[in-house]
Design goal:
By secondary structure, the protein is α+β, with helices and mostly antiparallel strands. It has a single domain, classed as Methylpurine-DNA glycosylase (MPG) (3-methyladenine DNA Glycosylase, Chain A). Helices cover 12% and strands 27% of the residues. It has helices spanning 4-7, 50-53, 95-102, 114-120; strands at residues 11-15, 21-32, 59-64, 68-74, 83-93, 138-141, 151-154, 168-171. Strands 1, 2, 3, 4, 5, 6, 7 and 8 form an 8-stranded antiparallel beta sheet that branches. A hairpin with an 8-residue loop joins β4 and β5. The termini are far apart. The structure holds a DNA duplex.
DNA sequence: CGTTGGATTGGCT
DNA sequence: GCCAATCCAACGC
């Protein structure tokens, strides 16, 4: 939680096997803490979320909703199971490649959401556990920190519990934020097979 | 062992 | 506005 706002403004870099460099400025994150009902870390440790329990400074990648990867930064020491979800970045380098990955050319729509971000940067489970400080596939650079007065906070997006926590941090006024609406999903639109 | 629901997105009605 | 895509773990029987 303490480091989540600090990640805003930093540069997320992804180096592809062919040497291409993709980079973006982090503009939206959410914190997930130990004991947080909305966090995977609140459940038992499995292969699915093991990275979250591991060493800090690593990349935690997981799959959800059947077809979307999410990328997180593990922030607390081994055993504490916390992470910061990277929800949106402002594209800087390798935009044409991002466009190809996303099948879209609107720059504000390339990385404006957690699932979009991973697709644009070609991030998947194979990068789970990567060291974001020393890694050579994906890492985070210092970038330009966002001043506290330009950071807006709010409740997290897409979760139905833990709404009492203002753990979503965004760069105020950025045009590259996700379109997810904070708070519970608009009704529970989950399919009902039972009659 | 079968069903449900989720840190989502994109496409169709 | 509503639903499908499609994987994993919790929960109910």
């Amino acid at each position: 939680m303490e480091v989540a706002p600090d990640l805003l403004g930093r540069t997320l870099v992804r180096a592809l096997p062919d040497g291409s460099r993709l980079a973006g400025r982090i503009v939206e994150v959410e914190a997930y803490e130990p004991g947080d009902a909305a966090s995977h870390g609140n459940r038992r440790m499995t292969d699915f979320n093991a990275t979250m329990f591991g060493a800090p400074g690593r990349l935690y990648v997981y799959f959800t909703y059947g077809n979307h990867w999410m990328m997180n930064v593990v922030t607390r020491p081994r055993g504490d199971a916390s992470a910061v979800l990277l929800r949106a970045v402002e594209p800087i380098d390798g935009i044409p490649i991002m466009e190809a990955n996303r099948g879209r050319s609107l720059v504000t729509d390339l990385c404006s959401g957690p699932g979009k971000l991973t697709k644009a940067l070609a991030v998947d489970k194979s990068l789970d556990g990567t060291d974001l400080v020393r890694g050579h596939d994906v890492w985070i650079e210092a970038g330009d920190p966002v001043a506290a007065e330009h950071i807006a906070v709010g409740i997290r997006v897409g979760v139905s519990v833990g709404l009492d926590k203002d753990w979503r941090f965004v760069e105020r006024g950025s045009g590259f934020l996700s379109k997810g609406k904070p708070g519970p999903p608009s009704g529970s639109r989950r399919r009902r097979t039972t009659t």
